[in-house]
Design brief:
The protein is of the alpha/beta class. It has eight helices and 16 strands.
Length: 355
Amino acid sequence: MAQTTNFFVGANSGDGFQNLFGELVDLEDTYDLMVLKGGPGVGKNTFMRMIGQTMEQAGASVEYLWCSGDPDSLDGVVLPELRCAVVDGTSPHVLEPKYPAAVDRYVDLGRFYDLTAAKAAAEEVKAHTHDYQAAYVRAYRSLKAARQVELDTLTAVAETFDAGRAERRIEGIIARELRGRRGRRGKTTRRFLGSITHKGYLWRFDSVDALCPKVYEFADSWELAAPYLSRLHDAATEQGWDTILCMSPEAPDQAEHLLIPGLGLAFVTSRPGMDYGKKPYRRIRLDAMTEPAGKARLRFQTRMTALLREEGVVALKEAKASHDALEAVYNPYVDFDGVRALAALEAGRLLSYLG
């Protein structure tokens, strides 16, 4: 049975749009990467869904990469066993081929627009484009304000954290779980497990459960787990295990979850708004290793952070509505039969690689 997983390579944050698209695949070890070009409503999501569904039906493992602007739409599909992928290469995550045709290549969906009809709708297109771009500006301002308040809270809590106690727990886990050197350094794939979206926060813990039956949960309301996840990641890769390192949307250089599929082992962070929600193999209560003072102030800052993020979500909803209106302008002028025929052709090419 085909294994499917779900991640993000883009995320919304207080610093704007965070982007891991350059790490979608390792181009030095990729056979075929299709970079889709074409504007709103042209059928990029339709194309990628057809590719994913066809390959699932053929028994291939499929990694779906979802869009933080619209988590019901795709940003990419990766076929790890075939070393192939297809990705939306348009703004705000523009990709260009590095090894044209030899490895990565354009797939132009823009040819399926009715050019004359689209030009007749130019003023409507411009209005909706300006509206959704302005809504994103408002969203990121609110998310930035929320993050600034949150950082003040995190700094105050970190000063009371018993790091030595946490380190001892991590060393014990490494000794128990991360053994058996494999003679090479493990490969790391970086992803986001979720993002704040127009639907609020969404996290794909289903991918954790699909890949890793043994889950350690860090109960961590204050972003204390990152250095310990990095320590676990380093130990795993040194032992030769391939990993999926899920980064924090608010700090994409900071680890938030770690999956080691070869061991069936995961380490996840769980906090309000990002709750794992299942019974873990072990729970490590980092919150219990803090003794923050000024709890009334912390509660106030936490409420302020939540309210500002809610304003960000409202603006993301406005951005989504404006983008939907923009796509609705284009949709009647798109040859979707042509899009689906091209997707079927490219799916057939991928099926031929299965041998």
